[in-house]
Amino acid sequence: MKKTALVFAAVVAAILALSGIGVGTSQAAPSVSLGGGSGILVLKGGNSAAACTVTTVGRPTAGPNRGKLIALTAGHCGKPGQRVLSERAQNRGPIGTITQSYSDIDLAIIELDAAKVRPVSTVGGVTIKRISNKPVSFPTVICKEGRTTGHTCGVTWFSDGAAHFSQMCVIEGDSGSPVVVGNTLVGMVNAYYFVSCIGPETGTNMGTITKRLNRAGYNNFRPV
After folding, report:
1. Between 20 and 30 A from 37 (CA), which of 55, 95, 168, 218?
2. What is the pLDDT of residues 3-50, one digit of tens each?
3. What does the alpha-carbon distance between residue 153 and residue 81 come to, in Å, rounded to a whole number?
4. 3-state SS class at 28
5. Over the chain, what is the mean pLDDT?
6. Contact criterion met (CB below 8 Å) for 53 and 175
7. DSSP state, 210?
């Protein structure tokens, strides 16, 4: 049920960026804006890349990785060691690398190049100010911002300590999208069942994600 899209142009853009073609050396290029809802491309090798969406950008405030700038997305978007581009700023080349990917909860952690990335709290129709580890419940209306379908909302049908199921519209490429109630991040999009944009949508709740981040050394994660 977990789906990603292949984007061939990303590889050409990455090669140009890495070789320095078309990039001036007299001054640094402006930082790439990135936040929950931003589109990313994960380089797969050869002529392919996976198009996904960032859940949020922030920093752990404790543990061995304290202070590192990281982004979260869906685990099926990539594997450790694969490089990540901003979909809207492909000419800047890789802005980060996947360091961890967990298939059991479908979560990937991306360590970002802080010299290239400018974290933002608002992307499209979603603003993230805080995290809630409490599962959402029926009939709470949740919303998301995805690189494919943009800003959509829907009622929560069911939620437990690990995952939620809702009526939000999602399509391939929306994987990793932030799921919010107001400006509070409560989860991420991972998949849809049956029919795209009809659903239901399902994803991992932030309580599950936060626990895994703590175990991985990205303790007390906070969105920037």
Report:
1. 218
2. 333 343 444 344 334 333 333 433 455 699 999 999 999 999 878 999
3. 33
4. coil
5. 89
6. yes
7. H
For residue 147, the enclosing domain spans: 124-210
pLDDT tens for residues 91-114?
999 999 999 999 999 999 999 999
User: 118 and 171 in one domain?
Assistant: no
205 and 116 assigned to the same domain: no
Distances (CA, A) of 155 to 55, 140, 205: 19, 6, 15
Q: Where do runs of H (alpha helix) occur along 53-189?
A: none
Angle of CA points 53, 57, 58, to nearest 5°? 160
> Is 218 part of a structural domain of the chain?
no
In the numeric block, which tokens belong to residue 111? 């360590």
Q: In the chain, how long is the greatest CA-to-CA distance? A: 55
Q: Which of 159, 139, 154 is nearest to 203 (CA)?
A: 159
Residues 38 and 53 sit within 8 Å (Cβ to Cβ): yes
Q: Global pTM?
A: 0.87
